[in-house]
Amino acid sequence: MEEAITYVGLDVHKTSIEVGLADGGRAGEVRHYGRIEATPAAAAKLFAKLSQGGRRLSACYEAGPCGYGLYRQLRSLGHDCMVVAPSLIPKKPGERVKTDRRDCLALARLHRAGELTGVWVPEPAHEAMRDLVRTRMAAQRGLKRTRQELQGFLLRHGRIYQGRSPWTRAHRLWLAGLRFEHPAQQIALQDMLSAIEAQDLRRQGLERQIVQLLPDWSMAPVVEAYQALRGVSVLTAVVLAAELGDLSRFSHPRQLMGYLGLTSSENTSATRRRQGAITKAGNTHARRLLVESAWSYQLPARLAPAKLARIEHLPKPVRDLAWKAQVRLCARFRRLKASTRSPNIAVVAIARELAAFVWAIARIVPPRTA
């Protein structure tokens, strides 16, 4: 006798959860159960009631700001659960009505049909490290935004720095010596300089904490191995490890490229085939860092002394693979740059191949087990 199973679609919000049920089988009934409070106690009571009589439950809900607490609770209670990628949920083009009730019923129905794609759910320790890494990236964005505000303010008043690079010691001395006739403008300048200093100190403090916590992290060996690649610093490697996690879930590097949104979009019909820009699906943070790292391959292949000292303790297969990547990608960058008008197209192509080498290194050096 086939085991009875009920598919549970959960539309999760801050204070409430809308519940839809779909009985197993193609012709199984799809019905609205109701609304419960978004608390662990209410979720445990609901699933205890639904699982009476030995009925198996398989739940799903969309990834969102409410996190993975519900997923971990249901898994600990012995129920199947999937956190669904919202951008990959099938939608009918003609539907113009969207309600919580309809959403939970659609999730239950699609989950029963196997049409939903789950996201990777990190372990609590990994998620904690990722939260710290993302806080550091938020501080970096805040610093960049404040610097842009200052530069716009100075440009409006014709104060243009003539030096080579901004935010060096010489540039900061130049900023400290600026004077405006009106007191309001001088106050505005000083306030922006103070904000930049505060944001910079915040970012540096977070970076120190990341480096301090790194040795105890299960992904520490992977972070060290990633640094063998050209253009990948300690913080870049930490972000890649935090955002991508254990890459053993990808059986082929093309899957990682698609996950990062580095593959070309395509519109093919009959004999016509059109390929467009990259899809930009998946993890934005990791994709951006890979593109930034890819710019370093426009220079000839070489091992700088600092990089050589950093990777000398790594396994020989990792060092050999990183050198192979550098030789290949540097040559390919030159060819692509000569054959295309836009260097951005070339650098994205290099970032796509760099993702494959990241995948290969992760296969050699796995995360540390608890």
Number of strands: 7
Largest sheet features: 5 strands, mixed
Radius of gyration in whole Å, from Cα? 26 Å
Give the N-terminus to C-terminus distance in angstroms: 40 Å
What portion of residues belong to β-strands? 5-15%
- How many distinct domains? 3
Average residue pLDDT: 94
The shape is: globular
Q: Note the quaternary state here.
A: single chain
Helix content: 40-55%
Q: How are the strands of the biggest sheet laid out side by side?
A: 3-2-1-4-5
Q: Identify low-pLDDT runs.
A: none
Give structural notes:
The chain is an alpha/beta fold and 370 residues long. The protein folds into 3 domains: 5-113, 2-Layer Sandwich (Nucleotidyltransferase, domain 5); 124-216, no CATH class; 220-364, no CATH class. Helices cover 52% and strands 13% of the residues. A 5-stranded mixed β-sheet has the order 3-2-1-4-5. Strands 6-7 form a two-stranded antiparallel sheet. Helix 4 (124-156) runs antiparallel to helix 6. The protein starts with a strand and ends in a 6-residue tail after the last helix.
Give a brief outline of the structure:
This protein is of the alpha/beta class.
Reconstruct the topology from this structure:
Elements: E1 5-12, E2 16-23, E3 30-37, H1 40-50, E4 56-62, H2 69-76, E5 80-84, H3 100-113, H4 124-156, H5 169-176, H6 183-213, H7 220-226, H8 234-244, H9 253-259, E6 264-269, E7 272-278, H10 284-294, H11 305-311, H12 316-339, H13 343-364
Parallel strand pairs: 1-4, 4-5
Antiparallel strand pairs: 1-2, 2-3, 6-7
Helix pairs in contact: 4-6, 4-8, 7-8, 9-13, 10-13, 12-13
